[in-house]
Design goal:
The protein is an alpha+beta fold and 147 residues long. The protein is built from three helices and seven strands. This is PilZ domain-containing protein.
Length: 147
Amino acid sequence: MRDRGQIERPVDDVIPLGYDSRRYVRFVLSGGGYVVQCHLDNIWFDAFRPALRMNLRDVNIRGVGLMGKAQLKPGDRLIIPSPQDYLMHAKVVRCAPDPLFPKLYRIGLVWDRLLPARVLLQWESFVLPPQLPDFHEQVSILESLSN
């Protein structure tokens, strides 16, 4: 797994939106999401914990939406692999029980660092066709910020 190429500026410095990250369109992934093995990265003992199996439901320029059995606290940090195994670091900002599946939690995360455009493009094949124009607009925003 790789962890290179991430822009070394916090997302809030580049896209200052505070807690509300929904000003950008969230791209719901086809097929109900993408299953990922996430790892906590905030304390030493996390290396001994098993990976968290999560369903990545949506992705955008600011963050990601997950669903899983683990109840995480705001402030927890996760390492999430992309489809091509690029490691993305994110911070939990919200965790709430799912109204339809009470044993599962909906988890909202924001990226620690701005993603390179090529990493966001890895999700293109999972984005629903009606959302592709908005997806490419967000990719172009990332490309302009990285230049």
